Amino acid sequence: MATSIPASNVDTIIFACEAGMGSSVMGVNALKKKLKQAGLKVNVVHKPVRSVPSDAKVIVVHKGLSDLARKHAPSAVVVAFSQFLNDPVFDKIVQNLKAGNDITEAQ
What we know:
This protein has 107 residues and is α/β, with parallel strands linked by helices. The chain has a single domain, classed as Response regulator (Rossmann fold). The protein is built from 3 helices and 6 strands, in the order ββαββαβαβ. It has helices at 23-37, 66-72, 88-99; strands at 4-5, 12-17, 43-48, 58-62, 77-81, 103-104. The radius of gyration is 12 Å and the shape is globular. The two termini are 13 Å apart.
């Protein structure tokens, strides 16, 4: 299990959810907007947690699904959040990517 990844290695973030509908769509759009405003070209892909590819590098997921995300992609950095909108984790991801810092696992 990875605990961090250099920002330079992050080209895609998997935003994983339970079923792929509802509030997670708002979270995906919020993260995409923050990345765009920061001038970052990182692809954000929305997937049900059970469909996360095993070779995923970074997974952003609600804390209640983080163990399942780790099971499906054991080498990924899993960044767990509590709130679908305005969770400070999203800002931290964007700040670290912009500064070239490592993206670190958050539970």
